[in-house]
Q: What sequence folds into this?
């Protein structure tokens, strides 16, 4: 590994690591009780392993997921990716980063919670979890979001500099802040048993399943579809290699090509030239896969370390179990309550500031990554509009939606995510099969994606028959239909064979 690998890997970590990635493992750590390690293992396998696989597999295709989706149908590819980028872009994910950072990092200070003693620290946690949301009015949110999205736009306007700004500057600051919180928490809580000792389903197998499903439901694989373009572009830039040249771009050997226009070792004829270009393309493809994989590993290891640390600290926080039960019963977010409590318990009043910095940086880097990915995709599809214009429009749209309130954003967008995610998971399985096992026929790919899309839409629509399907309780009711589509495609191909 070299410096570029770590810079790209840290950039990928930062754009993956949003506020939800702080909250989910913290809540899981407390709720798993004695089954902490089994739960964290399951969480890391799906919450880290699946996004890592998604990034690695995308490197096997020139245009990442777009290439794979074009095989299903070009119009389906265009419509599906446009919906994905709009959903993880200005319609949901980007506005959520602004609204979440305000509610977790700024609102507790405006409502006055969290200073003085353990009870007040708990009050700060409750405020950050949404207990006092909206009390200061819309003015503070408007001012904060203006500054927040202004900085996000500035960081996004130049994608080449974004890699350095996030990977080499913002991510180290974010990591230092998080590791300070975790490190001090470990010293503070060393030797303490789990706070919740009587937890339903705390045995190894059930705790593992809970963590496994928790990592799956983070839906970070959906973000991988958007981030793959950024990673591949950054790796190609750092490698200094171009994408595979089309046949039309080869020099016209018959018309006479100067010796310095031919690749080294061309052999002096057209056949040798074509073989040389193909060989260089193969080398570039292998290097692209290797470098993207290494950058993904850097991001994955960083995520796993943070998840384990946050889960362990939350698991042992000195909080009365009745307080934990009260937070959950009130509908407030347990993870943000635990993080605020841990921050105050480790660093006192400074801990609240530290937590605010962590949340703001985590949300900001994610917003920058999503603005960049969304703008690059639409600029590639409709290049008549510049990347800069797309970035400005995406940021303005996110600013408007964010000021509608976090609850409104989530309520309107979650159903769309629940339809998109199974399709992405099915596509990931098909790409894994193609590159590491065998290439499923096009009919299998189309049937699998078609079945899963239909089941996902019906599931979100609340059709009673879908609610009775196997694995519905795990949000995996689509999986048997993906397998069925692959099998039927194989059968159909054999029946048509002469």
A:
């Amino acid at each position: 590994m070299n410096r570029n690998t770590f810079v790209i890997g840290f950039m990928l970590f930062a754009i993956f690591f949003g506020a939800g990635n702080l909250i989910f493992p913290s809540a899981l750590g407390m709720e798993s009780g004695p089954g902490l390690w089994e739960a964290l293992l399951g969480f890391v396998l799906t919450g880290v392993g699946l996004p890592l696989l998604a990034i690695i597999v995308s490197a096997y295709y020139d245009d990442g997921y777009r290439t794979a989706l074009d095989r299903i149908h070009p119009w389906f590819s265009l419509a599906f990716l446009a919906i994905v980028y709009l959903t993880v872009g200005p319609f949901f994910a980007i506005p959520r980063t602004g609204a979440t950072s305000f509610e977790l990092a700024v609102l507790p200070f405006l409502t006055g919670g969290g200073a003085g003693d353990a009870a007040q620290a708990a009050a700060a946690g409750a405020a950050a979890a949404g207990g006092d949301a909206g009390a200061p009015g819309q003015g503070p949110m408007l001012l904060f979001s203006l500054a927040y999205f202004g900085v996000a736009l500035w960081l996004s306007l130049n994608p080449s500099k974004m890699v350095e700004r996030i990977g080499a500057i913002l991510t180290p600051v974010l990591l230092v802040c998080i590791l300070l919180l975790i490190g001090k928490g470990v010293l503070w809580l060393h030797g303490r048993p789990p706070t919740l000792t009587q937890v339903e389903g705390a045995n190894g197998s059930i705790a593992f399943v809970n963590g496994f499903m928790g990592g799956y439901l983070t839906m970070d694989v959906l973000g991988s579809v958007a981030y793959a373009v950024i990673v591949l572009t950054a790796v190609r830039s750092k490698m200094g290699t171009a994408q595979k040249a089309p046949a039309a771009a080869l020099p016209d050997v018959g018309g006479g090509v100067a010796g310095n226009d031919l690749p080294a070792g061309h052999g002096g004829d057209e056949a040798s030239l074509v073989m040389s270009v193909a060989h260089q393309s193969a080398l570039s493809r292998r290097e692209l896969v290797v470098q993207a994989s290494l950058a993904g590993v850097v991001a994955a290891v960083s995520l796993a370390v943070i998840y384990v640390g946050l889960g362990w600290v939350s698991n042992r926080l000195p909080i009365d179990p009745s307080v934990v039960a009260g937070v959950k019963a009130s509908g407030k977010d347990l993870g943000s309550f635990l993080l605020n409590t841990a921050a105050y318990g480790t660093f006192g009043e400074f801990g609240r500031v530290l937590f605010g910095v962590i949340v703001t940086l985590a949300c900001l880097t994610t917003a920058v990554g999503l603005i960049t990915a969304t703008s690059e995709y639409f600029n590639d599809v409709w290049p008549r509009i510049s990347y800069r214009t797309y970035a400005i429009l995406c940021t303005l749209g996110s600013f408007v939606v964010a000021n509608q309130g976090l609850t409104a954003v989530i309520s309107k967008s979650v159903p769309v995510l629940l339809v998109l995610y199974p399709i992405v998971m099915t596509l990931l399985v098909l790409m894994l099969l193609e590159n590491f096992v065998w290439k499923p026929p096009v009919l299998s790919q189309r049937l699998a994606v078609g079945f899963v899309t239909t089941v996902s839409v019906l599931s979100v629509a609340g059709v009673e028959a879908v609610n009775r399907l196997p694995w519905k309780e795990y949000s995996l009711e689509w999986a048997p239909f993906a397998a069925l589509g692959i099998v039927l495609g194989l059968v159909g191909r054999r029946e048509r064979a002469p």
